[in-house]
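Q: Here's a chain of 284 amino acids. Please give me its 3D structure as tokens.
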Amino acid sequence: MLDATQNSSLPARPGVGYKAQHYSDIMENPGPLGWLEIHAENYMGDGGRPIAQLRHLSERFPISVHGVGLSIGGEGDLDADHLDRLKHLVSWLNPASFSEHLAWSTHDSHFFNDLLPLPYTPQTLARVAAHINQVQDTVGRQMLLENPSSYLAFAESTMSETDFLRELTQQTGCGLLLDVNNVFVSATNLKTSPQAYIDDFPLEAVGEVHLGGHDEDADETGAPLLIDSHGKAVVDPVWALLDYTLARSGPKPLLIEWDTDVPAWSILAEEIARADRALALVTS
């Protein structure tokens, strides 16, 4: 088990999910941007323009590597080839932070293009902890685990999500990635309090905070149903929940995620500036 006191070396400044179309804007006019996130699976090849750009960016900005394909919560073994490619990326890039999702996306030989939820039971806890330990031992560094967006609750769960995450940090030494939009989405869908979730979250283990947009829909009863999409601007209630969170956690590395319908850099720059103002409220 890794030492739980290991912390991300990302600065407590705004970051953004890197997209290649923004390379020139980021290099020429980053504004208050302090760091970048990449998706691991996009950079597991050898050479080419994406790797060359990433090398240039890493000379100027701390990089966070965010994985989406390990299936940490899956019932089967982790994909050894995928883990080897991840190890290679982390070895040469030497990122400031590495994270994955509390979810599963594989079953036997099948891969699902979704991050699927887990029941919170002792059996699931043991399996996820074993996978986290395997990943951390392989890449030789602490992993941050992201809270999911939820659309249903499992009747067989015997632990709350926050207790489940807390226990994982204690058993494995992993850190946590707190996605505030996911908290808002889950609380709306499950009709719970997002503030109560934050109050119970192990904020001392948080190495990154994420913000993103979501889509609005309705369920069969007409009740609001939110879908985590990363395809829109962050809405005001999520910004308010961020303020609530930072007032309790203090400043943290804060990422703007926008992965679909990616806008012009000027739009992302506005989101980055707003994140910078939110951080200023707890650092002044």
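Q: Can you summarize the key feature?
A: The radius of gyration is 18 Å.
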